[in-house]
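Hi everyone, sorry if this is the wrong subforum. Our group has a chain we'd like a structural model of before ordering constructs, and none of us has done structure prediction before. Sequence below.
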Amino acid sequence: MAQNARDIKRRIKSVKNTAQITKAMEMVAVSKLRRVQSAVQQAKPYIAKMEEMMADLAPSARFVKHPLLETRPVRKTGYLVITSDRGLAGPYNSQLLRKLHSELRNVDPSKYVIYVIGRKGRDFLKRNNYAIANEITGIEDTPRYATIAPLAADIVQSYAKQEFDELYFVYNEFVNMVTQRPQMKKVIPLSKNTGDQSEARRPSYLFEPDEEAVMKNLLPKYAESLLYQAVLDAKAGEHAARMNAMSNANDAAIEMIGDLTLALNRARQAAITTQIVEVVSGAQALQ
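Answer:
Right subforum, don't worry. Here is the predicted structure as tokens:
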């Protein structure tokens, strides 16, 4: 019984150490989430201005030919999969990858091309024999535009070369602190009707050198900004998911400590009762 009490004490100490780690990881995730949310707020004005410009230029876009605006027969579909590099984030990665696998498992591999951000997504795709056209791993906890810009440019150029005919973002949308919703969102070709400005509010523009040259430079930047926005959204969801997973783990550890403490007390009581019985039995034997 004494040995049992020692084992329980050892387990309680181990669980307490685990609880300290999970609590620390929860606080780190909270800090990282706040930084990403700050980055999202900082990126919003830029993206909003891009959308405003696209809305202002929408009438002109109807007369401009650009690959990103072309709607063509879909022979091949592109997917950009955004996952995390690390685990311990609950179902954050698994639910998204299950959705992608369900979408593609019965599709001819020649009908799609996959780009991936995040080690978890890359490893899953390789294990399941999916070909990856390009990848980024080791992305920062607060992603920088410069980090994803090369991949974004590669995707835009591949679409312009007609290597695929439409592009979907596959990522976890950050809804709130407890909800991250898997999304499969069609992004390219870009809509010619971006924004919602009336004719009365729409300013008139003079193009230099011409409309097509302006749109040629603006549209790729707009597509890249949409990708950056999705990466920020996914990273915020990742930190929130990890925060919730660590909070749940910490709660489970505290509950386990309570159960083990109760078991320890019972073991101690049993040991004391045994000792009392032995003393009483010995005293009676001497009479």
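For your construct planning: The chain has five helices and five strands. Strands lie at 77-82, 112-117, 134-136, 166-176, 179-188.
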